[in-house]
Amino acid sequence: MQGVEIEELTVSSSEKCIVDNEITKLLMKGLIEPTNQESGEFISTIFLRPKKDGTFRVILNLKRLNEFVEYHHFKMDTIYTAIHLMKQGCFMASIDLQDAYYTVPVCPNHRKYLKFSWRGQLYQYSCLPNGLASAPRIFTKILKPVYASLRNKGHISFAYIDDSYLQDDNFEGCKTNVHDTTTMFDSLGFIPPSDQLFYRALERDKTQALKLQKGNYAANMTLSQDALADLRWWIYNIETSSKPVLASQPDMVIQSDASLLGWGAHSDGKHAGGPWGETEAKKNIWPDPKAPVNKSFAKDPGGISRGEREHT
């Protein structure tokens, strides 16, 4: 593959400072390295992408390179895998690995395909960059033995690239799952997140307290009534509040139809129908599509706990 003509990211003066800082960080971490032009290289552009914490990440634009990357089908767990594992009363946790792709080194002979230019200097990635088409498959295959080992310990665990889903029937079991998972990641050279839980109401209170205390982080702060109310709700309701995340199979399937003149319904070989009553016929809106179901099959509609209704 022959690289395209060298072009650089065009940004404002303030954004140039951001790119400079991010490239310095990448160099200090050993994730990129200075290089020179060579035969067969592929030079891509870069762009800035904002992160959740308000900072930025330099991304290598590999759209052109990916056209030459051969695709290999592979199996990947998704959110639906987690949903089918969930059950009422279970405890769940998630671990997002920090700079996950960057922990995977790239063969020195292949780094020439991962180049970019900034301020007239060529750089190349020494590790898996974000945006490479083959990166999700490579990283998923690397982590498969890790999660297989955790499951052999009795844990319910799986991953979606660098995000993990951990589950147990009780709090202590989930806590052990988190401990075993982070310990294994740490021993393998991965970096589990060290950030504390972010709660918006508490952050607002903290910001206000810092203003009052003139930036003194050691000073005591008072929580607002809104923050206290939210925290109390979680304390008192976290183990009792639940809502189905997966629709169960209906106990009964009822098909119904209605017009301005009458109604009809069908279920399990049984039929019912007829004209609207005098009061119902005088309504100046289209009849309630659930009315045929209630009139024909539901003696006490309030007692129906589950149902699947189709109005045709």
Automatic annotation (TrEMBL):
| PROSITE patterns, sorted | RT_POL
Q: InterPro entries of this UniProt entry?
A: DNA/RNA_pol_sf, Hepadnavirus_pol/RT, Rev_trsase/Diguanyl_cyclase, RT_dom
Q: Write out the transmembrane intervals.
A: none
Please name the SUPFAM superfamilies in this protein's record: DNA/RNA polymerases
Organism superkingdom:
Eukaryota
Name it: Uncharacterized protein
UniProt source species: Paramuricea clavata (Red gorgonian)
Organism placement in taxonomy = Eukaryota, Metazoa, Cnidaria, Anthozoa, Octocorallia
